[in-house]
Amino acid sequence: xxxxxxxxxxxxxxxxxxxxxxxxxxxxxxxxxxxxxxxxxxxxxxxxxxxxxxxxxxxxxxxxxxxxxxxxxxxxxxxxxxxxxxxxxxxxxxxxxxxxxxxxxxxxxxxxxxxxxxxxxxx
Length: 123
Description:
Shape: globular
Number of strands: 6
Largest sheet: 4 strands, antiparallel
Number of domains: 1
Oligomer: single chain
Distance between the termini: 60 Å
């Protein structure tokens, strides 16, 4: 099947998928966003988009949630890194995302800083 045919098929079908991390079946509806692009339980995603909602990416590898960023308007976004090709994408959080998993990502830099905390006294 050609890439164009796969793209047309993906656009015709709902964007439901099975999470490659936790195995949960994810529906296409996502409160607060037009494109469901990650598991609301574990926050992992699939690399299927080049741009939000286009379903044009050929990689289709699992995308790991590696952080949280806050946009200018105060909205939180997930930072995903593709385990296949290394691409990094920002994805809007959805209203049904696991709040504990989001907070875990948000405080990760504080809980495990990239440098030894005891060295701060030496500065």
